Amino acid sequence: ASARQEADRSVDSLCPFCGVGCGVTYKVKDEQIIAVEGRNGPANQGRLCVKGRFGFDYVHHPQRLSTPLIRREGAPKDPSLSGDLAAQFRPASWEEALALAVSGFTRIKQESGPKALAGLGCAKGSNEEAYLFQKLVRTGFGSNNVDHCTRLCHASSVAALMEAVGSAAVSNPVADVAETDVILLMGANPGANHPVAASWMKNAIKRGTRLIVLDPQAIDLTRHAAHHLQFVPGADIALLNAMIHTLFDEDLVDWDFVHRRTEGVEAIRANVAPFSPEAMAPLCGVEAAQIRAVTRLYAKAGRAMMFWAMGVTQHAHGTDNVRCLISLCMLTGQIGRPGTGLHPLRGQNNVQGASDAGLIPMCYPDYQKVSESAAQAKFEAAWGMALDAEPGLTTVEMMQAASDGALKGLMIMGENPAMSDPDLNHTRAALTQLEHLVVQDIFLTETAALADVILPASAFAEKDGSFTNTDRLVQLGRQVLAPPGEARQDWQLLQILAQGLGLDWDYQGPAEIYTEMQPLMPSLSGIPYARLAEARAVTYPAADPHTPDQPVLFTERFNTPSGKARLVPAPLPVSLEPCDDDYPFTLITGRQLAHWHTGTMTRRSRVLDAIEPEPVVGIHREDLDRLGLEVDQRITLVSRRGQLQARLRLSNRLRSGDLFMPFSFHEAAANLLTRDDLDPSAKIAALKTCAVKIRL
Ligand code: SF4
Predict the structure, then answer these.
(1) The 4Fe-4S Mo/W bis-MGD-type domain covers which part of the protein (predicted)?
(2) 608 lines ligand 1 (CB under 6 A)
């Protein structure tokens, strides 16, 4: 109430953090945000979590970049990121910084060709910024070397969903938990990472919905679960194939649905024949009876919904994991109705929209493949120039190409691969080797510290634009404040760079960019800007402006050529880094409620950083006692790729032999330890687990 009284104005917009897409009202006094309140948006109906409510003050942090910076002559790039990073740069005028940024890209393109350049866009920016960024790379640089952090989170979900159902987004919204009998949650911790979604789940459970948790760790929601199968990390496919085996074995398959709506069932049946729960139980570390019990509960439910996140996707077998989940769903007919379906919980506020807008190397906007001539012709006509038909490099492949010398110039907007990518010693060395690195960001991030040119950009609260949440809900965010100092809106920066590269861009703002993008994307064909501006939140797909929102998809057919879902079998993966005598622990990486990804924003938020001020490693009591260690003891954690120091925290959520660490702390970056093995289909890296040892 006091903030409401003190504020001299209020602006309705969105939370900048997770894919739930909560509506918020910013309370502003003297051009400072003084409070955030939950708004009655469709995703949250007034609810907010601690990040949304208290994580706003990063916007006013004194370390905000407010003037362009260029690397001082002779200042070496230091992959160890030690020393005074700010001292390596000097302020520059916009003219000087932009001229340097453009001339570097132009020189490399002339000397080494377009494929020596690449761009990493941003899942926190708007749909319009994502669209412009991929257009800049495709038309200004001249290749499809464009990607963003979806490659590190749900790329495997996108690959498996596109293959099976012809659509990369969720089939049903989170709110459908109110109508479901059973929630199956695998490799996701919504209590920490999608807290308002977790609150809808808790409400449903209170009303009688049963929850199944499949996870190597106990999560916040486990105490509300009917079953928690705490399986061995990496045994996902053994577990899921055992569940699918149980469907056939106990006559739980919905044959009518399978015959009408799917293809490939016999290959699935043959594949799972050896995977009885009794055979797989020792591999999974759970009882066979438990596997059978949760399968029955899910299959026999009148309506069952499935949610998953990074615990499923961030593996070299991530796509196969999602294929198994899809098979489980399809074989039981748990899709196409309210309260059923497939829901990959999207992490960042606009990772769905950024992927939809074409910020991926194999597709133009709306997943139209660059390798298909009709799509290529469509975008060549729209953009007025010839385009490359070869899919480009993915995020981790870009780092490998930089390391090999094939990639020489990189533009990064708002991403922080020097913290978020796997095997950071390799990643940071690769970034250092680039001839020309331009970073557009709001802080001098670990990645910006290795740049040649840094362009100060706008924070979420300083821009207008559309954002797509995990439910396929496109919403408008509104500008609350002006960017600080000389910082500029991201779309303006992209336009100036494009003009420098010879493109004739002359957009007047996000509405005009949306109006160019929307007719190129079939999913938005019924959502012209006027509809979006009026409704402020519309769920795609919409065939025409009068099509009502479609929260539930696949009621009659899937988006595949045959209209049927394609079931794809998954073999048991070979463990790429099993624990051994030298590295006896499995480290699981993830997030905490108070912090967001690489910590750039939340570590600079007073309340959030006070909740979790330092990096900790979670450990089971048995391991602590067996090794004679103490709670709070500072240890060194070592993998085959790197090491870091952090304190031990007792965890009652882990299995003995497993450790947990968040990846948000620059002083002990968990990804120094992780592996860059790639999933062959999705090219996602195996960020979720690696083998480590504790050294004192
Ligand atoms: Fe923001 Fe997500 Fe929390 Fe909602 S649940 S307030 S979108 S971080």
Answers:
(1) 8-63
(2) no
Provide long-range contacts, Cβ within 8 A and 24+ apart, for 285-289.
285/230, 285/231, 285/232, 285/235, 285/655, 286/229, 286/230, 286/231, 286/239, 288/242
With bands split at pLDDT 50, 70 and 90, how would you rate the model's confidence at 485? very high
DSSP character string of 519-571: GG-GGGTT--HHHHHHHSEEESP-SSTTPPP--S--SS--SSTTSSEEP---P
Residue 83 inside a domain? The answer is: no
Q: Residue 392: what pLDDT?
A: 98
* Owning domain of residue 217: 155-344
Q: Do residues 332 and 360 share a domain?
A: no
ipTM above 0.90, yes or no: yes
362 alpha carbon – ligand 1 mean position (Å): 30
Residue 564 lies in a domain: no
> How many other C-beta atoms can be found within 10 angstroms of the C-beta atom of residue 502?
10
Q: How many angstroms is it from 630 CA to the middle of ligand 1? A: 35
Residues 217 and 289 in one domain: yes
Residue 549: pLDDT band with limits 50, 70, 90: confident
139 occurs within a structural domain:
yes
Share of the chain above pLDDT 70, in %: 99
User: Are residues 340 and 357 located together in one domain of the fold?
Assistant: no
Pick the residue whose CA is nearest to atom 4 on ligand 1. Answer: 22
Helical segments of 87-213, H only: 94-112, 127-135, 155-165, 190-193, 195-206
Q: Would the pLDDT of 5 be above 80?
A: no
Q: Do 487 and 624 fall into the same domain?
A: no
| Helix boundaries (H) for 287-317 | 288-300, 310-313
First to last CA, the chain: 51
- Ligand 1, atom 6: nearest CA belongs to which residue? 52
CA separation (Å) from 482 to 91, 240, 461? 20, 50, 8
pLDDT of residue 619: 98
User: Is any ligand 1 atom within 6 A of the Cβ of residue 347?
Assistant: no
Q: How many domains does the chain divide into?
A: 4
pLDDT at 1 over 60: no
Looking at residue 4, what is its pLDDT? 62
Q: Is 521 in the pocket of ligand 1 (CB under 6 A)?
A: no
Is the Cβ atom of 417 under 6 angstroms away from ligand 1? no
Query: What CATH number should be reported for the domain holding residue 665?
Result: 2.40.40.20
* CA 262 to ligand 1 center in whole angstroms: 36
Could you tell me if residue 548 is inside a domain? no
Q: Which of 175, 10, 178 is nearest to 537 (CA)?
A: 175
Spatial contact of 332 and 304, defined as CB atoms under 8 Å apart: yes
196 Cα to the center of ligand 1, angstroms: 6
18-61 confidence digits (pLDDT tens): 999 999 999 999 999 999 999 998 999 999 999 999 999 999 99
Q: How far is the CA of 170 from the centre of ligand 1 (A)?
A: 18
Residues 139 and 167 in one domain: no
**Mean pLDDT over residues 471-500, rounded?**
97
What whole-number distance in Å separates Cα of residue 363 and Cα of residue 356?
Answer: 9
The answer to whether 309 touches 189, Cβ cutoff 8 Å, is yes
State the average pLDDT over residues 266-292: 98
Beta-carbon contacts of 484 under 8 Å, excluding residues fewer than 6 positions away, are 64, 66, 456
Which ligand 1 atom minimizes the distance to the CA of 196? 5
What are 444's two structure tokens?
A: 């001098």
Residue 146 token pair: 């464009």
Distance 201 CA to ligand 1 centre (A): 15
